[in-house]
Specification:
alpha/beta; six-stranded parallel β-sheet; six-stranded mixed β-sheet; 11 helices; binds beta-D-galactofuranose; Peripla_BP_I; ABC transporter substrate-binding protein; TAT_signal; signal; SBP_2_dom
C-alpha cells in the first residue's frame, strides 16, 4: 500500500484522469438513449473515468447514486434530475464533501444556487412556445378547421414537463381558436403515450383535432392509438411534438407527424469540457444553453440525412 501511495503521490495531479460520477434519469426515450451515448463517448474520447448510474426514472435511485459518488470521492458529480424538487439535502452533502455538481439536461429548484456550479441544457419554455407558434400559424392558414388540443405531458414534476406546458400555454393564451380540452402525463414513454391517447380518444373521439406531446416518444405511441381508432394522424389529428429524434422524422416522412421542435441531447462534449474546467479551478458559466431548431414535415426529407440522433 505504501508503494502504491508513493506511486500515486509521484504522479503529477493533472495526470490523474478526471473521475466524473454521472446519474442518468433512465432509458425512457430515444432522446435519453442519444443523451447517454453522447456522455459516454465524450468521456471516452477525453480519457475521463466515468462512473455511470441509470436511475430507472426514480429520484431515490439518483439520490443513492449521488451518495455513492460522494463516498467514492469522485472529482465531479453530474446528473440529469428526473424531477425539479427534493435535491437540497443530497446536494448539501456533496457541497460539504467539496465535490462540485454539474446539472445536465434538466434543472432543479433549490434554496441555494451555490449547490451546483453549472446547468447545461435547453430552454424548455421556449420549446413549448415554438410548438404553439407553429400551431398558431397553422390555424391562420386553416380558418375552417377546429383546434381542440389534447396534451400529453412529460414526467410529472420534471422541468421539461412543467416548462413545455407553460411555454405552450403562454403562446395560445387569448386565442379563441386554440383550446386544450384534455391534458395528462404520458411520462415521456411510447407505451404510456399510447395508453393515455387511447383514453383521450375514448372520451373525446372526433372532438380531438390536435395532439401536443411533450416528446416524440409519446407522440409515436399516440400515433399508433390514433390509427387503431381508424383516424389519420397528421391529418384528422395534427401531431405536434418535441425532441427531433429519428422516430419523429420517420413519422413525418410517412405524413403522420406534422412538426417536431428540436431538443438537443448531444450534451456530452459540453459536460466533459465544463467538468475539466471546474476540476482545474477555472470559472464556468452558471447556465450553458444549446442551439436547436424547429423541423416541420416539409423539411423532413432534406434534413433527415443530417440528423445525428
Ligand atoms: C429533455 C429531456 C426529456 C426529453 C424526453 O431535455 O429531459 O426527457 O424531451 C426525455 O424525451 O425522456
Amino acid at each position: 500500500a505504501a508503494a502504491a501511495f508513493a506511486l500515486a503521490a509521484a504522479i503529477p495531479a493533472h495526470a490523474k484522469p478526471l473521475t466524473i460520477g454521472f446519474s442518468q434519469v433512465g432509458a425512457e426515450s430515444e432522446w435519453r438513449t442519444a443523451n447517454t451515448a453522447s456522455i459516454k463517448s465524450a468521456a471516452k474520447q477525453a480519457g475521463v473515468n466515468l462512473k455511470f448510474a441509470d436511475a430507472q426514472q426514480r429520484q431515490e435511485n439518483q439520490v443513492k447514486a449521488i451518495r455513492s459518488f460522494i463516498a467514492q470521492r469522485v472529482d465531479v458529480i453530474a446528473f440529469s434530475p428526473v424531477v425539479e424538487s427534493g435535491w437540497d439535502t443530497v446536494l448539501r452533502e456533496a457541497k460539504a464533501a467539496k465535490i462540485p455538481v454539474i446539472l445536465t439536461d434538466r434543472a432543479v429548484k433549490v434554496s441555494d444556487p451555490s449547490l451546483y456550479v453549472s446547468f447545461i441544457g435547453s430552454d424548455f419554455v421556449e420549446e413549448g412556445r415554438r410548438a404553439a407558434r407553429w400551431l398558431v400559424e397553422h390555424q391562420k392558414k386553416n380558418p375552417n378547421r377546429g383546434y381542440n388540443i389534447v396534451e400529453l405531458q412529460g414526467t410529472v414534476g420534471s422541468a421539461p414537463a412543467l416548462d413545455r406546458k407553460a411555454g405552450f400555454a403562454e403562446v395560445i393564451a387569448g386565442n379563441p381558436k386554440l383550446k386544450i380540452i384534455r391534458s395528462q402525463t404520458g411520462d415521456f414513454t411510447r407505451a404510456k403515450g399510447k395508453e393515455v391517447m387511447e383514453a383521450f380518444l375514448k372520451s373525446e373521439g372526433k372532438n380531438i383535432n390536435v395532439l401536443y406531446a411533450h416528446n416524440d416518444d409519446m407522440a409515436i405511441g399516440a400515433i399508433q392509438a390514433i390509427e387503431e381508432a381508424g383516424l389519420k394522424p397528421g391529418k384528422d389529428i395534427l401531431v405536434v411534438s418535441i425532441d427531433g429524434v429519428k422516430g419523429a422524422f420517420e413519422a413525418m416522412l410517412q405524413g403522420k407527424l406534422n412538426v417536431t421542435v428540436e431538443c438537443n441531447p448531444l450534451l456530452g462534449p459540453q459536460l466533459v469540457q465544463t467538468a475539466q474546467l471546474v476540476k482545474a479551478g477555472k470559472p464556468v458559466p452558471k447556465r450553458i444553453t444549446v442551439n436547436e431548431g424547429v423541423f416541420p414535415a416539409e423539411v423532413a426529407a432534406k434534413e433527415f440525412p443530417n440528423r445525428k440522433y
